[in-house]
Structure formats: C-alpha cells, structure tokens
Amino acid sequence: MDPGRYKLSSYGMPSDHAQATSFIVTYLCLFVLLRLYRNASLLEDLWKYILCCCLVGIGGGVAFSSTIPNVLYFEYVHIKKESTHRQRRKGSC
C-alpha cells in the first residue's frame, strides 16, 4: 500500500461532535457549580443533585448497553440474508 495514496481531511478522533459535547457539558458543570457555590444553602444539597445525576446516568447507560446485543444480532442476521441473496442472484445469471 502506498501511504501517500490516502489523504485524510481530518485527524479522526475526537470528532467535532464529541468536542462540542465535551465543551458544553464542561461549561454547564462549571456554571452550575459556581452558582451553587454562591448560594450556600444550595451547596448543602449538592450531594443529592450529584446522586440523582449519577443514578440517571447509570440507568441510561444500562438501558443503552442492553440494546447493543440486539442491534448486533439484527445486523448480523440481515447481512447474512443479503449475502446469501446476492450469491443466489449471481449464480442465477
């Protein structure tokens, strides 16, 4: 393979979407923490907010990861069907 043959327009990871998402999440976290720090009464309840966010994040992660095997199986079955269909069609010509 000739390494000069393939010219990439970007460097790959992290993508623009990942960079933008990371920036927005970091900005919002710092914004909320600074607001909570100014209000001492809200700072006392900070652990409740953190616990709630962690539980929501863990729940979302579990829900997302439980669908991955189903998606992989779905793709495998349909790719296999398409492959056999193409082989049959190629053989009949």
TrEMBL record:
Domain of life: Eukaryota
Residues spanning the membrane: 20-37, 49-68
Swiss-Prot/TrEMBL keywords: Membrane, Transmembrane, Transmembrane helix
Protein name: AcidPPc domain-containing protein
